[in-house]
Amino acid sequence: MQRILILNPKGGSGKTTLATNLAASFAVSGSWPALMDLDAQGSSMRWLSKRPNEQAPIYGIAGFSRSAAVTRSWQLRVPRDCDPLIIDTPAALETHDLPEITRGADIILVPVMPSDIDIHTAAKCIADLLLVAKIKRSDDRIGIIASRVRSKTLVSQSLMRFLMSIDIPLIATLRDSQNYLRAAELGVGIFEMPTWQVSKDLDEWHSLLGWLDRDKESVNSSPEVAVRG
Ligand SMILES: Nc1ncnc2c1ncn2[C@@H]1O[C@H](COP(=O)(O)OP(=O)(O)O)[C@@H](O)[C@H]1O
Ligand SMILES: [Mg+2]
Questions:
Q1: Domain range for 113
Q2: Which ligand is nearest to the CA of 14?
Q3: Residues with beta carbon < 5 A to ion ligand 2?
Q4: pTM (whole model) above 0.85
Q5: What CATH code is carried by the domain that includes residue 47?
């Protein structure tokens, strides 16, 4: 089972949008993905609760809730047939949380909005992933997604400069599109909306899905899921 962690300590950077649309894209293509929500705001789980019954199933794990009745590992268990596991994480993650939350992740996707503040926070997040969580650049596990990109603006250019300076790949650029808001309201992904409406957005996802696919061969198959205990 491939584990895809979506991470950026900045709220509003597009984590939940990426997590839910990714889950929907896998579901549409015939996999049975699991979507784990570690954010107490529960946005991914709210999206899943709106999901129409006729859509392809996604297994939801409300990792933020604590229950005295079951153990943590039981609460976070992922059915054996699920693949991949997509993990949506909260904003305001502390640096010292990173080693644990990234343990066992095959892929770490960092969505970044093209604003100076967001670029600055992302730079710190990537530095922490490399230095604190000890993810090796050579593992090629970290990918950046530029999110809500309006056009080739000056800030987008400074995002590109930043990416070149840190030598972490930009996997996809997702434009600012109302389709993500519509999809969120309906509990679907853009892959489940009429093609004429979303064709521009779908084009932007091909490079991301291709990059994830390239990795599938090499993922480990241990059943452990590393999340904050
Ligand atoms: N590419 C996009 N185009 C338009 N709106 C977007 C896009 N990505 C995210 N959003 C919107 O931005 C807001 C924050 O995104 P969200 O995914 O919830 O961020 P996070 O989970 O990092 O806090 C949401 O209202 C979401 O619908
Ligand atoms: Mg979120």
A1: 3-216
A2: 1
A3: 15-16, 43
A4: yes
A5: 3.40.50.300
Answer whether 193's CB lies under 8 Å from 179's CB: yes
Tell me if 16 is assigned to some domain. Answer: yes
The reply to whether 186 falls in a domain is yes
Quote the tokens at residue 85. 């596991």
What is the domain count for the chain? Answer: 1
- CA 147 to ligand 1: nearest atom: 1
The alpha carbon of 12 and the centre of ligand 2 are apart by a number of angstroms equal to 7
- Cα gap 181→188, rounded to integer Å: 10
User: What pLDDT, on the 0 to 100 scale, is given for residue 223?
Assistant: 42
Residue 91 is assigned to a structural domain of this protein: yes
Query: Is 225 domain-assigned?
Result: no
Ligand nearest to the CA of 147: 1
Q: Quick one: average pLDDT of 37-64?
A: 96
Under 8 Å between Cβ of 35 and 44: yes
The ligand 1 site (C-beta within 6 Å) comprises 11-17, 43, 91, 147-148, 174, 176-177, 180-181, 184
